[in-house]
C-alpha cells in the first residue's frame, strides 16, 4: 500500500487513468471478479468501477500519484458510512491487492483493513 503522494501528474512511463482502469478490469476478470464501469447521470463523483464477487466494492481509479478530489472523497466516505464498501487506487499493485482480497472474501476483515488504510490517506 502506498503512502500519500505529491498529487503530481503521472510521468510518461506511468499509465494514464483510462489505461490503469483497463488493466484493473483485465486482472479482475482473470480472477473471476465481475467488474463494471459505473456512471451515474447527475452524479459525476461516483467511483469509476464496481467490483463484485460475494461482496461489492466501488473503486475510484486515479492516475499514478493523484488522489480523489474532494467530491470523490466525500462519495467514498458516504458509501462506507451506509455500510457499503468503497475505496480508491492509483496503481495496479493496490488494485490487485484489493481484487485478491475480494476474491478471497473469507478474509472479510482484511477488506475492511484495506479500505480503512487506503481511505486514511484521504483524511490527512
Characterise the protein shown here.
- By secondary structure, the chain is an alpha+beta fold.
- The protein has a single domain, classed as Trna Endonuclease, Chain: A, domain 1 (3-Layer(aba) Sandwich), CATH 3.40.1350.10.
- 44% of the residues lie in helices and 15% in strands.
- It has a four-stranded mixed beta sheet.
- The N terminus is likely disordered.
Features:
single chain, 124 residues, alpha+beta, Trna Endonuclease, Chain: A, domain 1, 4-stranded mixed beta sheet, 4 strands, 15% strand, disordered N terminus
Short description:
The chain is 44% helix and 15% strand.
What structural category arises from helix and sheet content? alpha+beta
CATH class: Alpha Beta
CATH topology value: Trna Endonuclease, Chain: A, domain 1
- CATH architecture assignment: 3-Layer(aba) Sandwich
Q: Which bin fits the share of residues in helices? A: 40-55%
Total domain count = 1
The termini sit apart by 16 Å
Give the tally of β-strands: 4
Spatial sequence of strands, sheet with the most strands: 1-2-3-4
State the shape.
Answer: globular
What's the overall average pLDDT, rounded?
84
Unreliable spans: 1-11
Amino acid at each position: 500500500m502506498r503512502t500519500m503522494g505529491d498529487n503530481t501528474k503521472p510521468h510518461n512511463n506511468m499509465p494514464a487513468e483510462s489505461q490503469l482502469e483497463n488493466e484493473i478490469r483485465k486482472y479482475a476478470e482473470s480472477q473471476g471478479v465481475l467488474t463494471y464501469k459505473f456512471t451515474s447521470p447527475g452524479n459525476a463523483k461516483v467511483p469509476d468501477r464496481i467490483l463484485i464477487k460475494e461482496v461489492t466494492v466501488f473503486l475510484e481509479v486515479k492516475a499514478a500519484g493523484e488522489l480523489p478530489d474532494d467530491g470523490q472523497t466525500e462519495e467514498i466516505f458516504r458509501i462506507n458510512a451506509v455500510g457499503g464498501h468503497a475505496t480508491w487506487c492509483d496503481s495496479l499493485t493496490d488494485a490487485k491487492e484489493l481484487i485478491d482480497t475480494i476474491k478471497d472474501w473469507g478474509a472479510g476483515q482484511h477488506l475492511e483493513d484495506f479500505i480503512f488504510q487506503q481511505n486514511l490517506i484521504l483524511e490527512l
